[in-house]
Amino acid sequence: MPVTVEQVVSKKQVKEFVKFPYTLYAKDSNWVPPLLMDDFRKLDRKKHPFWQHAEGEFFLARRDGAVVGRIAGVHDRIWEETHKEKAGYWGWFECIDDAEVARLLFDAAFDFARKRGCTRIIGPMSPNANDYIGTQIEGFEGSPVMLMTYNPPYYDRIIQAYGNRKWKDLVAWMMDNPEIPERLAKIMPRVEAKGGFKIRTINMKDFKNEYDRFVGLYNSYEQVNAVFTPMTPDEMAVMAKDLKMGLDPDLVFFAEVDGKIVGVSVTMPDFNVGYKAAYGHLFPFGIYHLLTAKKKTHLVRTISMGVLKEYRNRGIDLAFYYYSYKNGVPKGYTAAEMSWVEEDNAAMTNTALKLGGKAYRKYRVYEKAL
């Protein structure tokens, strides 16, 4: 049967777009469904703050009436302003193992970008680098960690068949030895004294101000990444609201020098344990699974860590890891994923290796000239 591609315009099509992965991954025990309410919110171009500076279109592929794929084309003005180039994104890509279906989906998304004057397109980013990013290409054993992508192994093949090529590979590092590295524990007092910094945990009673401090840092230190896109205050507010419930205040740190906040580290319990059990629904029982996820997981993920440029090379990053070990292990967290790290980020890679980390999963961001 021929394949057709249609633009998503009706509420029924939006529902089909969001729910297609439930069909695609129905027999995949590793897949972790996101909350349906979150997916619907991200697609709401009238309400979600991302769409205040971006535009996008969503597409469905059908064969004999059944949905067999989906994709989005995105044009983000903040990317253009930051990187000084006319580039678009593609994202929300899900597809059966069929090169024709993938080709027609890419045709639709890439045509969207061309019509807006873009000369290059990168992806997958859903919707940008501050959310789900990359196609998993290595390390398919087990379920993904929270806020990391997951897909069938054949995706890399059908994506490259269209002419997309590697732009950046992102690495997930696993630290699964719960013992604090002896050398790290030994040198930490000297590192802190010489570096002239102090490490403290987040004050949840002052969350609004702590959040504002994080915002002030994030858009500065993340510039080391080629796929960096600044976040607006409204986007930050949504992220803070989403993550607040899952924060363990003993694993969120600020670094201070002479009273000035110069670095931050955010490590969170792997809430995918709860999301998997909730199976997309917050009610009636999903909220219970999410609230009890901390007790069910021994894995954490360091989702953001950075130090202002002028305060690097003082050992602040090592201190973040040290205190994450010191505070986390007694609470039952025995393994940590540090993700994601651009493969050519030598500083973060060297730190991960010094801590005994293993590069155990890899994700790819592709590019194609238009």
Give a verbal description of the structure.
The chain is of the alpha+beta class and 370 residues long. It folds into 2 domains: 3-170, Gcn5-related N-acetyltransferase (GNAT) (Aminopeptidase, 3-Layer(aba) Sandwich); 175-361, Aminopeptidase (3-Layer(aba) Sandwich), CATH 3.40.630. It has helices spanning 11-24, 36-42, 77-83, 99-115, 155-161, 182-195, 207-221, 233-244, 272-278, 286-291, 293-296, 316-328, 346-354; strands at 3-7, 54-63, 66-76, 87-95, 120-123, 125-126, 132-133, 135-138, 165-175, 198-201, 252-257, 260-269, 299-307, 335-342, 358-369. The strands form 2 sheets. Strands 1, 2, 3, 4, 5, 8, 9, 10, 11, 12, 13, 14 and 15 form a 13-stranded mixed sheet that branches. The two termini are 29 Å apart. The model has no long low-confidence stretch (mean pLDDT 92).
CATH class of the largest domain: Alpha Beta
> Secondary-structure element sequence?
EHHEEHEHEEEEHEHEHHEEHHHEHEHE
N-to-C CA distance:
29 Å
What is the architecture of the largest domain at the second tier of CATH? 3-Layer(aba) Sandwich
Structural class: alpha+beta
* Average pLDDT rating: 92
Compute the number of helices.
13
Any idea what the shape is? globular
* Strand proportion: 25-35%
How many beta strands in the DSSP annotation? Answer: 15
The low-pLDDT segments are none
Q: Please name the fourth-level CATH homologous superfamily of the largest domain.
A: Gcn5-related N-acetyltransferase (GNAT)
Helix content: 25-40%
The gyration radius over C-alpha positions equals 21 Å
Biggest beta sheet summary: 13 strands, mixed
Count structural domains.
2
- Looking at the structure, the CATH topology of the largest domain is Aminopeptidase
